[in-house]
Amino acid sequence: MISRTPPELEVLRTVLIADDESSIRLLVHATIESDDYRVVEAADGAQAWALTQELKPSLVLLDVQMPGRSGLEVLRSIKADANLKATRVILLTSKAQERDIEIGLIAGADFYLTKPFSPLDLLTRVEEALEL
After folding, report:
1. pLDDT tens digits along 60-85
2. Which CATH number belongs to the domain containing residue 125 in this structure?
3. Domain-embedded: residue 4
4. What Cα–Cα distance (Å) separates residue 47 from each residue in 36, 43, 62, 88, 122?
5. pTM confidence score
6. How far is CA 131 from CA 1, 10, 21, 123, in A?
7. 63 — alpha (psi -120 to 50), left (phi > 0) or beta?
8. How many domains is the chain built from?
9. 10 Å Cβ neighbour count for 127?
10. pLDDT tens track for 109-128
C-alpha cells in the first residue's frame, strides 16, 4: 500500500529574495510565485542572513550589493554553515563583469544572473535550482 502525505500537511519549500530595491523584490516575487513554495523577502544583507538562519530556505536569491552584508558575504556564510550547505543560491545582480561572475561562482553560487534579467531566464534558473 502506498502512503502519501495529504497536500495540506506537506511542508512548502521556502524561497528567500534578498534585494535592497523593493521594485526588484516585487518583480522577482511576481515572477517566481508558485503554489509549490513560500516566497519570503529581505531588504538587506543582515536581514537576509537572519532569515536564512531562521527559515533554512531551499533557495536564496541574493543581490550582490546590499547594505548591511553584501550578497557575497551572505553566500559565503551560507556555504560555511553545515546546516545550510544544501541551500541553493542564485546571485541576481547588476555586476556583470566577467571577474564579478567568476567571484560569485567561486564563492558558491549555483547560478549568476545579471540585471536587467529576463523573467523567463529567472524562472528557469529557479526551477533548475529547486530540482537539484
Report:
1. 999 999 999 999 999 999 999 999 98
2. 3.40.50.2300
3. no
4. 24, 7, 12, 18, 22
5. 0.89
6. 27, 17, 28, 12
7. beta
8. 1
9. 12
10. 999 999 999 999 999 999 99
Instruction: Please work out, in degrees rounded to the nearest 5, the angle formed at the alpha carbon of residue 71 by the alpha carbons of 69 and 75.
Output: 105
Q: Is residue 88 part of a domain?
A: yes
Beta strands in 1-132 (DSSP E): 13-18, 37-42, 59-62, 88-93, 111-114
Q: Residue 34: its pLDDT value, please? A: 87
Grid cell 536569491 is found at: 61
User: By residue range, what is the domain housing residue 127?
Assistant: 11-131
Instruction: Identify whether 116 is preceded by a cis peptide bond (ω within 30 of 0).
Output: yes
88-93 and 111-114 as β-strands: parallel, antiparallel, unpaired? parallel
73 grid coordinates:
558575504
Q: In the numeric block, which cell numbers belong to residue 96?
A: 556583470
Q: How many CB atoms lie within 10 A of CB 104?
A: 23
Residue bearing cell 523577502: 41
